[in-house]
Amino acid sequence: METVSDYFGSLVFDDRVMKATLSAKVYASLKKTIDEGETLDIGVANAVAEAMKDWALSKGATHFTHWFQPLTGITAEKHDSFISPSPDGGVIMEFSGKELIKGEPDASSFPSGGLRATFEARGYTAWDPTSYAFIKGKTLCIPTAFCSYGGHALDKKTPLLRSMEALNKQALRILRLFGNTTARNVRSSVGPEQEYFLISKEMYDARPDLRFTGRTLFGSRPPKGQEMDDHYFGAIKPRVAAYMEDLNQELWKLGIMAKTEHNEVAPAQHELAPIYTTTNVATDHNQLTMEIMQKVASRHGLVCLLHEKPFAGVNGSGKHNNWSISTDEGQNLLSPGDTPYENAQFLLFLCAVIQAVDDYQDLLRISVATAGNDHRLGANEAPPAVISMFLGDELSAVLDAIETDTPYKGTEKTQLKLGVHVLPRFNRDTTDRNRTSPFAFTGNKFEFRMLGSSNSIACANIMLNSAVAESLKLFADRLEAAKDFESELHDMIKKTIQDHKRIIFNGNGYDDAWIKEATEKRGLLNYRTTADCMPHLLDPKNVAMLTSHKVFSVEELRSRCDIMLENYCKSVVIEANTMIDMARTQIAPAVARFSADLARNVEAKRSVVAGAACVYETGLIEKLSGLCDRIAERADTLQNALVSLQEAEGSQAESIRIRDCVLPKMSELRLVCDEAETLTEKSYWPFPTYADILFSVR
Ligand code: ADP
Ligand code: MG
Q1: What is the pLDDT confidence band of residue 118, given thresholds at 50, 70 and 90?
Q2: Is the pLDDT reported for residue 158 higher than 80?
Q3: Is the pLDDT of residue 359 over 60?
Q4: How far is the CA of 601 from the centre of ligand 1 (A)?
Q5: Residues 246-253, mean pLDDT to the nearest whole number
């Protein structure tokens, strides 16, 4: 039998394949491009393309594609075959360096937020050699960035790579100040934990809301939900286990290090976590993982739901973005060191993150904002929409001691004075866990927990990398100009703690009292919806920061803000239309039919027992016909709210109407429909209920 190590990465043009198929010269040149971002010579590109093509053909591939991540949030590909006519009437298989490096998809249908006029429809895709090419089906996929002819980024990869470069540049400045002369680059790494629901395809097919919107828009609570806490880490059911096994194999073939899998809190909910890797590769891998999760599910007669809130009243799905920064020499800069000097460097990087998260709370919130994720943040299951940081008791005590110039009462009693050598020593082990914090330090990495399960992790990491690059830049500017490095460092760390300690909170983030304290006492931001937060992308401080690090241009930011708001509006409008349709054509008619049958029963009964009271039937008929009227009425009201959207000028105005007029009307319609569900005999109900769906996979 084939073992995992036999087939791991078998569909990836990885370092092993490069070494085996490229000449030493070409390999060395490509490595330089990958590691140091040197531009690739066309001769080298031709040789790489040739080797890539031969390798792909040997794996049964017939086509190639530039694989990219437009602003729709999913990946895009347009396939070209390798065939080229030969003079004798046959074909030869060709793939040139030019085709490898650059593509020109007709991209007029991808959102550009006005960056690309339709007459100038073509954008171009450019190879990202730092992410390996791979084979999906019969197609060689080449990870690429996607830009307009004017050079504007139309995708998520381009700004992500730029943000990594910004972080690299500033972090290296700091390392040099600490005497590190050997590190060549600093990169952020990410391990995203991915939550999802698995339900039977039969149930999914019977629910228009799931099919059109990815979430249920109706459904009363099942008699049994997650209250028994018997699902989390429970035994995995055979059908789910078979799915996970198959999924792992597919991911492993693509070189994705799927590592951990377990049941989550809600029934039918599960989690998959890979081993962390460089951020842009982790991003590509997470996009692929989401795609393959869905594909493999369909082979098992299942559907994988990646929506943030597929079921009301049941835990939603998130994605935890475990993030750290490290040098090419393998030093994790978020890991407390063994010596006081290393600890000083660690404290500096820690402070850079603290300052970044406090100064750019809004950008972090924006980076996870979608219509779907709005249902999670703020409910008592996911971190709140308020951003705060958890550091744990030990680290908080260290910061306290520095801030107040008092002895640190930790493992070592040190009087704190100016200078690095008296910064406290502390253990690297911080075992305390806090599951309710949006941004938690977990020993040697930060876990950003606000991402929605369907979010591309690119957005969160773009903001995180950029904001931290900004604090590191401010620190480096100051330290490079300092006369006495050690005392300047001490003052700077102390000042940063004083200025930004409001963002640190070690308590229960789900507590209502915390939201009150955060917003009223500490002045932290609480943007509850996408409509609330998105316009702040264009706040002057945010534009200044993101453009100064060359992560986005002003035009790119404007277009992104517009696209995100448009996406929000479109998603909700589709949901509202689906609701109206289901209410009018399925729910109301079913309830009416049931009432009519009840009425006929009354007639029938009374023909046997003249004057029978029929209290059960008449009472029910009365309730149901009242509900039926209200369903019809509320569907009309919702429809009117949708019509009134036409009056809104621009996506921002529309998003506010959606927040204030459409979403509340949707809840009102749902309320009466869900009540009707609880009163209607089951066989009349037009689609599977929550209980049917959530316990459908055995
Ligand atoms: P949890 O207790 O939250 O489940 P784990 O230790 O299992 O945490 O790790 C969760 C994720 O964090 C995994 O994807 C793992 O690879 C990733 N991870 C671990 N260390 C790091 C690190 N230094 N940088 C980034 N991600 C990391
Ligand atoms: Mg976690």
Answers
A1: very low
A2: yes
A3: yes
A4: 62
A5: 97
Ligand 1 atom 6: residue of nearest CA: 442
**What is the average per-residue pLDDT within 239-252?**
95
What average pLDDT does this structure show over 427-451? 82
Q: CA-to-CA distance for 446 and 442, rounded, in angstroms?
A: 6
Q: Is 286 in the pocket of ligand 1 (CB under 6 A)?
A: no
Atom number, ligand 1, closest to the C-alpha of residue 275 = 16
Decide: 103 and 145 in contact? Cβ < 8 Å: no
Distance (Å, whole) CA 630 – CA 652: 31
> Ligand 2 centroid to 556 CA: how many Å?
32
Q: What are phi and psi of 534, to 5 degrees?
A: -55, -45
Which long-range CB contacts under 8 A does 557-561 form with residues at least 24 apart?
558/113, 558/114, 559/112, 559/113, 559/114, 559/115, 559/152, 560/71, 560/113, 561/113, 561/534, 561/535, 561/537
Percent of the chain as helix, strand, coil, to the nearest 5: 50, 15, 35
Mean model confidence pLDDT for the chain: 91
Token pair, residue 34, equals 């990958």
**Nearest ligand by distance to the CA of 445:** 1
Instruction: Give the pLDDT mean for 301-318.
Output: 95
In the Cβ-directed half-sphere of 407, how many Cα atoms lie within 13 Å? 7
Cβ contacts of 476 within 8 Å, gap of 6 or more: 170, 173, 174, 177
Q: What is the CA(257)–ligand 1 centre distance, in A?
A: 12
Residue 335 CB less than 6 A away from ligand 1: no
Domain ranges of the chain: 4-155, 163-552, 568-694
Contact present, 347 and 493 (Cβ < 8 Å): yes
**Residue appearing with tokens 């990836």:** 12
Instruction: Write down the pLDDT at residue 175.
Output: 97
According to the model, what pLDDT value does residue 500 have?
A: 98
Tokens of 505: 């909170």
Give nearest CA residue, ligand 1 atom 13: 191
Tell me, using a 6 A CB cutoff, whether residue 279 lines ligand 1. Answer: no
CATH superfamily of 163-552: Glutamine synthetase/guanido kinase, catalytic domain (3.30.590.10)
The CATH number of domain 568-694 is 1.20.120.1560: yes
Q: What is the pLDDT of residue 405?
A: 81
Q: pLDDT (tens digit, 9 = 90+) per residue, 628-681?
A: 999 999 999 999 999 999 999 999 999 999 999 999 999 999 999 999 999 999
324 Cα nearest atom in ligand 1:
24
Confidence band, pLDDT 50/70/90 cuts, at residue 233: low
For the 4-155 domain, the top CATH level (class) is: alpha beta
- Hey, how many other C-beta atoms are within 10 angstroms of the C-beta on 685? 17
| Residues recorded for the chain | 698
**Distance from the alpha carbon of residue 191 to the mean position of ligand 1, in angstroms:** 6
Asked if residue 275 has its Cβ within 6 Å of ligand 1, the reply is yes
Residue 223 Cα to ligand 1 midpoint, Å, equals 36
Comparing 4-155 with 568-694, is the CATH topology the same? no
Per residue, what are the HEC states of 377-436? Answer: ECECCCCCCECCEECCHHHHHHHHHHHHCCCEECCCEECCCCCHHHCCCCCCCCCCCCCC
Query: Ligand 1 centre from 519 Cα, in Å?
Result: 30
From the alpha carbon of 334, which atom of ligand 1 is closest? Answer: 23
